[in-house]
Structures are given as C-alpha cells and as structure tokens.
Amino acid sequence: MKLAYFDCAAGIAGDMCLGALLDCGVPLEYLNQQLQALGLEGEFNLQVNRVQRCGQPALHAVVEALGSHREEHSARHWPEIQSLIEGSRLAPAIKARSLEVFYKLAQAEAKVHQMPLEKVHFHEVGAVDALVDIVGTCIGLDWLGVEQVLSSPHPIGGGWVNTEHGKLSVPVPAVIELWEMARVPVFSNGVEAELVTPTGAALAVALAEDFVPCPPMRVEKVGRGAGTRELPIPNVLRLWIGETAGGELTETVSVLQTQIDDLNPQVIAYTCEQLLALGAWDVFTQPVTMKQGRPGVLLTVICPPDRVPECQNLIFRETTTLGIRHAQEQRTLLERVIERVETPYGLVDIKVARHHGRIVNAQPEFRDCAARAQEYRVPVQTVWLAAQSVWQRRHQGDPT
Questions:
Q1: Could you please report the per-residue DSSP string of 167-227?
Q2: What's the superkingdom here (predicted)?
C-alpha cells in the first residue's frame, strides 16, 4: 500500500504541503494544468523556489493572487467552494479529497463564529491561495498514487497573530476546533509562533487516518516543504512517501470498559447493537463476579478515538453504569483487500489478508454467503465452501 506520512515537527500549512509534494517529484507543469480544471485562469500564479531553513534545503511554494483577483475572490462561502469543485473537470478522487478538506475547515470556521455553515463568510476557505494549496495537495497525492495518509502529532506553537478578526492567540480558534474534531495529539516544541495554520490542520484532519509516530515503511521519497518564516528550528514539513513494510499497519484504537450488575440483559444486547451502529469496531460482553458475589457483565467497546464521546454518551444513556474506563492502545493490522468471486449462487466477496507480502488468510464475507443462501434456499455453509473453492482455484500456486 502506498503511504504518505506528514512529519509535522515544525508544524503544517497548505503551502508547506504543496512544496513537499513538488519536492517529491510531482511535476509543476502537471500541477498547474490540473489546477486549471477549477476555472481559475488568470487568478493566481504559483511560484516554487529552492530555499534553506536553518541549513535544511526545502521547496517553498508561493501562491500569488493576480490583478483584481487579489480582492475580488479573497473570500467565498462554503456553497461556492462546493459548487466550484463539484463542477470542475478534476478526477472524482481528487474532488472527494478536496471537498472533505474544505468541509472540515468550513465546519471549524462555522463553529468558531457560531453561525450556520452556509452563512459564514469564510476568508480562509475561500481565498485563492487556500484553494490552490488544498486542491493542489490532493492533486499531488493522487499523482503519487497515495492510498493512505498518516500524520505525526502537531506542535501547538504560541504567541499571537493578526487576522481579519483582530489579534488572536496561537493556536487560533479554527485550528483548535479541527484538533478537537479528530482528537489530534499535540505537543510543544518550544517555538512561540503560529506553526499550524487552519488550512494545514484541515488537510491533516481530513486526509490522515491517524496521528501516530512514523509507521514501518519502505521509504521511496522524502519531500521537504518550507514555511515562510525563519524559526529557531528548520521550518520544514517533511513528507515521507513509501510502501507499508511487511504488509502491516499500526493504528490507535480506543477501548471502553464498564461492569454492570443491575440491568436487564436484553438492554445490554440492545446497547451493543446501537454501539456497532454508531461506528464501534467491536463490542463484546463477558460474565464477571462482582462485589458480594453478584453476577455481572463486563462490557468492552473497541472504537475509533473520534467516536469515544458518542459511544460513552450512549452507554450512559442506555445502561445503569456510573463510570466508564477508557484507554488508547496500538493494534497492528494486516494488509487487507477485497476480491470478488463468481459462485454457482452468485457473487461473494472474499477478505484477503497478507503478511510480509504473502497471503495468510482468505475468508468469504459471511453476509454475502447468508444472502445468497437465502436467495437459493441452500445451507449457508454450501455457499461459503463454494466461494472458498473458487477463490482457492484462482490463487492455486500463487502465495502472493
């Protein structure tokens, strides 16, 4: 799997992402050509310069608004941005990524200003440089064939910045809102400056699946995108491009647990179903013996970190528990793909897992087997075995 990792030791901004991607080999001519699909001809000029930040070489991407467009399109509303991207000639995957980034940024700005999404005057969302930075980043990731994006934790920075809304402390409110959305881990690197911009935070929150130390990977390229300011440390975003090593990925999961000894078991079963519907990855119960020998149930929920508040609220609402323990753990995943096979009973998906490039497991999707079994009025095991047999014949003699 092609992986991109944002190394944000000095922060992240839109121009830094764009510079890092160009440093990874994305052709400037190709990027400009693709950006014309937005219909912004004559509105901007993209310049790239090789610079040094504390002695470290990097590419500095500068988006310059041209002529009357300096003021005319300095701000747009979210519906305008959405219409602009959806109506463009960009590839569907680039559109989807770009829209997700802008939507996250628009959500944050709307919350900061306490206004409906469509009514907020988004300066950050609508500026020409933000459009080029965000859409250009999505174009670059697509050109590199990136399938998964991860990010390091973000530095909080410090000090003050001047904005259209006056002087604001760093990190600015929109960045804080974005960090809250994705439960982004943050740290202090000792630098008192704006290190993470709203555009940079939105790119990371929308595109990155997790915020973790650099995972095992086979490094192909490292791009360095320069920030504008000189800092006590190299003001550089490093972008690591490579393939996941050994077919393994590491991700952060949240684990919620509570014991319950005074609730109707049917309510516990209902709660488990609702937790899964809410986005939990796994929910299970175990019988336990509690104080004074009372029989009880240990409820365990494994969920994405950003689903913790919703899952906790549901448990408190539906059960009699007075407290929930929660922790974050790392889990290692095998590389997984879905292959579809044609059986005498119809199409069935096969979940295929690889470890160090070799197939170690292949299981028919049970829901597909159950649906085909009901349709043809045969035992579900008959469909399962038929799908397994078709897949094995296809891969006979091929361990990869």
A1: EEESSPHHHHHHHHHHT--EE--S--S--B-HHHHHHHHHH-S-B-SPPSEEEEEEEEEE-
A2: Bacteria
